[in-house]
Design brief:
The structure is a homodimer. Chain A is mainly β. The first copy, chain A, contains two helices and eight strands, in the order αββαββββββ. Chain A has helices at about 10-15, 50-60; strands spanning about 30-35, 40-45, 60-65, 70-75, 80-90, 95-100, 120, 125-130. A four-stranded mixed beta sheet of chain A has the order 2-1-6-5. In chain A, strands 3-4 form a two-stranded antiparallel ribbon. A two-stranded antiparallel ribbon of chain A has the order 7-8. In chain A, strand 3 (about 60-65) and strand 4 (about 70-75) form a beta hairpin. The longest helix of chain A is centred in the middle third of the chain and has 10 residues, at about 50-60. The N and C termini of chain A lie far apart (about 40 Å). The interface of A and B includes residues 19, 44, 87, 109 and 113 of A.
């Protein structure tokens, strides 16, 4: 079942009013989660058609796990449900930007930090700076 | 030539001090560009080992173009060079977050908007809100 159309040309893709995601060879687009209040970039995950459709329908973030090859409701086990306030798409419609309000403990990351980007590259090495 | 090592286990990947990106089957990791001053998410692009190494060495963003299958110095033709102030990596090291100062006209997007995420999904349709 195809839920989203393909854009017929670059003009439709870049300036048209039709959501026509450019899913990759694995059927995925990248989705960036940004905290709606703080503006912090929280995590990057992947969506297939079903995950995107459910996200738009429910107002909560659904993803597709590449490692588990399974649809995944974020927060299902962790409680870190992501309430979606806004969904943006980029120029070539292969990336999404979601403004979210993290529920549960207010975080997104399974390691325990509030966001997944808790390490900075400094002189080639990683330093934890949550 | 392999420039970056592989993490031997989950602990090294998630908490270790060694930058060991999890390049995908195409040899790429996702790189999110965030404006260092405004906090706006500007674009998402892809880096292979060479692009990441050059970015860290030069302090300017290099990418790998999936469509052109070529290394790409952002701004080479557009003037939209991206000065990199900080590079972060996520928990499983398959996504990077770059804090940047866009040079040139201050934008990143070939369509002409300051950022690539200039459209919002509203009731299933796309609305331009730069």
């Amino acid at each position: 079942m195809t839920r989203f159309p393909h854009a017929p040309d670059a003009a439709a893709l870049e300036r048209g009013p039709v959501l026509a995601p450019s899913f990759d060879a694995e059927g995925l687009v990248a989705a960036i989660l940004q905290h709606a209040s703080t503006g912090e970039v929280l995590m990057l995950a992947w969506m297939n058609e079903e995950a995107l459709a459910r996200t738009l329908e429910t107002g909560e973030a659904w993803f597709f796990s590449r490692s588990r090859q399974a649809l995944w409701r974020k927060g299902e086990t962790s409680g870190q449900v992501q309430k979606v306030l806004e969904v943006r798409v980029d120029c070539d419609q292969d990336a999404l930007l979601l403004k979210v309000e993290p529920q549960g403990d207010g975080g997104v990351c399974h390691v325990g930090f509030p966001r997944c980007f808790y390490r900075v590259v400094e002189a080639g090495a990683l330093v934890e700076k949550p």
